[in-house]
Amino acid sequence: MVGAPVTPNPLPAQLLASIDELLQELDTLVSPSSSLPHDVIRNASGSITAQLRDHSRQLTNIVREAKQHSSEDRLMKDQAHLGLQNLLYERRHLEREIEKCRQFNSIYQEIPLHTMDEFMSIAPEEAKTEEVLKDEHQLLLRRLNLELSERTRLDIQKKQMIAEKERLLSENKKAEGGLDSLVGDLDSLSKIAVELQGKMAALELP
Fold first, then answer.
1. Could you say which protein family the record assigns here (predicted)?
2. Are residues 29 and 99 in the same domain?
3. C-alpha span between 40 and 48 (Å, rounded)
4. Fewest CB within 10 angstroms: 88, 105, 111, 171, which?
5. CB 134 within 8 A of CB 166
6. Together in a domain, 150 and 195
7. From the CB of residue 146, how many other CB atoms can be counted at a distance below 10 Å?
């Protein structure tokens, strides 16, 4: 675990103390003032040398393990630091996104809606229950739905009125065309009547 206290290993200190004692014994054995037989000195020094080599191997292993643990601890600390940096980056990113959302002007805020009095007056009962009125989000959805249905209804009425207007204009044009034809016929009849009157007047002369 990163940050856990490291318990000191007493073995290296014990080995170093033992090495010091063995070196002192070896110095005593090979000292010119030593009165021990040569064979005894050789056997004793060989035993001490073997112990020193064993202690050396143990110290080498301890140093190697310590370096490995140190490397692992450093790697874990680096990973923890990197993870912390990633979390801080994510936090800053989320804070920026939250701020953007707070400053975001929804298109729904720009749609002119019926007033609450109008909504309460014309909305169906299921759209204005107590539960809906307590929930701002649900209330906005109901008001938008009402606005959509009302605008759809008014758009249908508008199209119907336009169609009726076009029908009346068409009929009016037909009536005007018939009237023009009638006026033309009357003009023709008037001319014929004038000609007929002229001929009749000529026949009445002596």
1. Belongs to the THOC5 family.
2. yes
3. 12
4. 105
5. no
6. yes
7. 19
Candidates 195, 112, 94, 198; CA nearest to 148 is 112
Both tokens of residue 169? Answer: 């204009």
Q: Give the 3-state secondary structure of residue 115.
A: coil
Domain that holds residue 87: 13-104
Other C-beta atoms closer than 10 Å to the C-beta of 138 total 14
Last residue in a domain, options 69, 104, 139: 104
Cβ(145)–Cβ(127) below 8 Å: yes
Last residue of a domain, one of 104, 126, 145: 104
Q: How far is CA 21 from the centre of its chain?
A: 70
* CA–CA dist 25, 29 (Å, integer): 6
Q: How far apart are CA 120 and CA 127, in angstroms?
A: 9
147 close to 111: Cβ distance less than 8 angstroms: yes
Compare 24 and 205 and report the one with higher pLDDT: 24
pLDDT tens digits for 33-61?
666 677 777 777 778 888 888 888 888 88
Residue 18: what residue type?
A: S
User: What are the tens digits of pLDDT across the range 121-180?
Assistant: 989 999 889 898 898 889 888 988 988 888 899 899 999 999 888 888 888 777 776 666
